[in-house]
Amino acid sequence: MNNDQLLILELVKGNRSAFKKVHDLHYAWLYGYSLTLTRDKDIAKDIVQETMTTLWINRASLDSKKSLKNFLITLTKRNFIDHYRKHKRDLGLLENLTIEAFTDASSDSGNHDFMDKKEILNQWIEELPPATKDVFILNKFRGISYKEIAELNSISVKTVESHLYKAMKFLRKKVTKKL
Q1: Domain 3-86, what fold?
Q2: Is 0.85 surpassed by the pTM of this model?
């Protein structure tokens, strides 16, 4: 039996020192991995903390025959996706699409009008099917590559492209109707 298998067996028993050892051994690389996903130090720390909490809560279901590292990677991916489903940030909101689409050369309505347009855009994004919306947000707002999104969601790159195509087609249609 290797060290990870022994640690898992001790974790299943509720051994806190085994949990501390897992934390000490895996925290640094999990944080680095989470940071590559989030590009935000605080959010990365929160996601790793959530991963460790989930590990402790679900310790009884651990299988010593499976890789602890793979389990931690999967938990971190899930926590990352859950975080962004729950806490979407306003990061420019489709600047490459919306600024031009909503600009009316004859209008001097100012910042208030822009905020209204952002709200409309948010409503349209919420109308997207959940999987399409998630892929769209990860790519357009977080700048995550097609390949990374595919890995996070356990889908093919072609499926990611399809979701993005559908989202852009839907939003262009909405913008055209609005104009």
Answers
A1: Rna Polymerase Sigma Factor; Chain: A (1.10.1740)
A2: no
